[in-house]
Amino acid sequence: MPKFIDAIAGFGVTFKAMFKKPITEQYPEEPGPTAQRYHGRHQLNRYEDGLEKCIGCELCAWACPADAIFVEGASNTEAERFSPGERYGRVYQINYLRCIGCGLCLEACPTRALTMTNDYEMADDNRSDLIYGKDKLLAPLTPDMTAPPHAMLEGSTDEDYYRGNVGAFRLTIQPKESLL
Prior knowledge:
This protein is an alpha+beta fold. It has helices at about 1-10, 10-20, 60-65, 105-110, 135, 160-165, 175-180, and strands at about 40-45, 70-75, 85-95, 115, 130.
């Protein structure tokens, strides 16, 4: 008799599921919500004035265990400035055929230029379309941003940008003695 009770207890999950109403999702027409911290497609972020946060250091490419990221840095000039500081990422590519979504590239980024969005629909029938370039990865410009290349905000330094002291409508520059 105990073996019969063990068998009934073993089928308990099955019996509970048999009498529940099925949940049907209308996926392509009505996509469901994603978890708030879901790691999907990558995004290259911008500062509030439109300059790119990526400085072309290539640390994300070195940290990637799947070798899915390619970065080629270049030098900024006063005539063409894409990011604060000396360098910017001239070429930035992520191969989503190789990316495993581990997030190590996010941890390696010193300027928090790279983040992951909740966008999960990246399937395609063409392999070359799954290599995302900078044109697909860069965050869109908001109406109060200026498209790069342009100079940094007047009176600011690259350190102000990295510390977050530069905003679209504010610029707080502290005296040097208060920084010590």
